[in-house]
């Protein structure tokens, strides 16, 4: 099958990962750097973005990974857009959907379609500072330690069961950009490790507990 990017949808015996990204895509880049090793166990087979100018789309193209853009402006309302995002993801037959800097909220319907198969990375230590400005909100609160969280997505905003977290100390002179850059270094490593473990060992979600392992 062809996708809008023109690349064919790949077939692979690895765990099929679809990445949703709105921005530069440094987390996507880290997954793409890991996925060529068969021992890693996961492979990015598709990238979906809401923004035609997202750097993540350039990364996908350069890696030969199929991609699609589903921009809200092209749809009559939010529900139609949300359904189209789900359809674009489904084209790639994902085992796992990774939200890596996807800056829009997906509906409970989308979450239900890929239930317990969606993970998100967030630049704060949840459940503190959810939402679109996690780094800014943590700094404004005056925390001394922040970090990042990889969690299973449920119907709420950044509320799903936590899979992994890494702490990043806040420096006296940090501004949002400086702290976010250091968090992103930890975040990339945590996301790559967590996705690989899910691929190799499996993921089980029971209530608020998300467990990697068989
Ligand atoms: C990441 O830090 C991610 O946690 C954050 O956006 C950044 C994307 O960076 N996501 C959120 O804030 C979602 N609430 P990237 O485009 O370089 O991967």
Model description:
This protein is globular. Helices cover 33% and strands 23% of the residues. The chain has helices at 26-34, 55-63, 78-90, 108-113, 134-141, 176-201, and strands at residues 15-20, 42-49, 67-69, 96-99, 118-122, 145-152, 162-169, 203-206, 209-212. Strands 3-2-1-4-5-6-7 form a seven-stranded mixed β-sheet, sandwiched between helices. It has a two-stranded antiparallel ribbon with strand order 8-9. Helix 4 links the parallel strand 4 and strand 5. Helix 1 (26-34) runs parallel beside helix 2 and helix 1 (26-34) runs parallel beside helix 6. The protein is α/β, with parallel strands linked by helices. The chain contains six helices and nine strands. The structure holds glycinamide ribonucleotide. The site of glycinamide ribonucleotide (GAR) has 16 residues, from helix 1, strand 5 and helix 6. Glycinamide ribonucleotide is lined by residues 21, 23-27, 100-101, 103, 121-123, 132, 134, 184, 187.
Architecture blueprint of SSEs:
Blueprint: E1 15-20, H1 26-34, E2 42-49, H2 55-63, E3 67-69, H3 78-90, E4 96-99, H4 108-113, E5 118-122, H5 134-141, E6 145-152, E7 162-169, H6 176-201, E8 203-206, E9 209-212
Parallel strand pairs: 1-2, 1-4, 2-3, 4-5
Antiparallel strand pairs: 5-6, 6-7, 8-9
Helix pairs in contact: 1-2, 1-6
Residues 21, 23-27, 100-101, 103, 121-123, 132, 134, 184, 187 line the site of glycinamide ribonucleotide (GAR).
Helix content: 25-40%
Supply Rg.
Answer: 16 Å
- Summing up helix and strand content along with how strands pair, one would put the structural category as alpha/beta
Task: Report strand %.
Answer: 15-25%
The spatial strand order of the largest sheet comes to 3-2-1-4-5-6-7
Which outline best applies?
globular
Question: pLDDT under 50 segments (min length 5)?
Answer: none
Number of strands: 9
Q: How can the largest sheet be summarized? A: 7 strands, mixed
Oligomer: single chain
């Amino acid at each position: 099958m062809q996708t809008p990017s023109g690349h064919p949808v790949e077939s692979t015996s690895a765990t099929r990962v679809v990445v949703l990204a709105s921005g530069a895509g440094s987390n996507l880049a880290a997954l793409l750097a890991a996925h060529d090793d068969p021992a890693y166990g996961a492979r990015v087979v598709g990238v979906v973005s809401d923004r035609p100018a997202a750097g993540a789309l350039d990364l996908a193209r350069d890696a030969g990974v199929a991609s699609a853009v589903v921009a809200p402006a092209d749809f009559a309302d939010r529900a139609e857009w949300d359904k189209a995002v789900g359809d674009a993801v489904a084209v790639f037959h994902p085992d796992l959907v990774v939200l890596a800097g996807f800056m829009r909220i997906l509906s409970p319907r989308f979450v239900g379609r890929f239930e317990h198969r969606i993970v998100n990375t967030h630049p704060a230590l949840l459940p503190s500072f959810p939402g679109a400005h996690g780094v800014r909100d943590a700094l404004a609160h005056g925390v001394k330690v922040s970090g990042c969280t990889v969690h299973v997505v449920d119907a709420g905003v950044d509320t799903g069961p936590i899979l992994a977290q890494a702490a990043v100390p806040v420096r006296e002179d940090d501004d949002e950009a400086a702290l976010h850059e250091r968090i992103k270094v930890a975040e990339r490593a945590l996301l790559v490790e967590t996705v690989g473990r899910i691929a190799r060992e499996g993921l089980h979600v029971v209530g608020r507990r998300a467990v990697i392992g068989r």
